Amino acid sequence: MNNCISKKDTKAVYKDGNTVRKVFAPDYSKTDVLYEALNTARVEDTGLDIPKILSISVEDGQWVITSEYAKGVTLTQLIKEHPENIDSYVHAMVDYQIAFNKRSNPLLLKLKDKLVRQINALELDSNIKYELSTRLESLPKHNKLCHGDYCPDNILVETDDAGKITAITAVDWVHATQGNASADVANTYLMLKLVDESFAEKYLVDFCKKTHTDRRYVHSWLPIVAAARMTKHIPEEKELLESMIDVCDYQ
Prior knowledge:
Helix content is 44%, strand content 20%. It is α+β, with helices and mostly antiparallel strands. The chain folds into two domains: 4-68, Phosphorylase Kinase, domain 1, CATH 3.30.200.20; 73-250, Aminoglycoside 3'-phosphotransferase, Chain: A, domain 2, CATH 3.90.1200.
């Protein structure tokens, strides 16, 4: 398998004809591999057109998930190649998210339950954790399909010669849940803000305009999703995330 298209410390992705093989490190958790495959299958069951799981196997002591190959490039790459089209790319990104938020699967983990566990796992002042938990409980419970890691790196697109998007899909549904779409949007906004604040603002403005959502409602989720992201323990994000979990700033 020489055609490596993505590589991280714990996994590598290879193109093999019309399939993609995700090969996990030898010490990668069996539970996490099977959960990723199951979660992706449950997203497939919603009817959303995503690259489908074809098989799960063990080869030379390493777990392998084989999926359909999705043509195209990441939205991240497309933005670098055609920065002049950034507004249309934001529109396509938002439109696709709105489309999958309309779907659901009752077998998916509830987003609120996941957020509760993440908040409880943090080493934060008990008063802050109480405020976050209280806010989370007060926000509406929905059952919409949420990606959980919806960002340009996980969006694959096909384009014409001018760089206009003709097809779009998302990959890496391991964090998919059922929950409030605005929580999923707040999470994407946060991830974008950590990289490019201008892009993040374009994204949020477009989503709120198309869905008639008050941006203050999306912002009400920010302290919660920021706290959840702190469980990743990324040092360079720590200062910004800590500033965002101050609930009083997002009233």
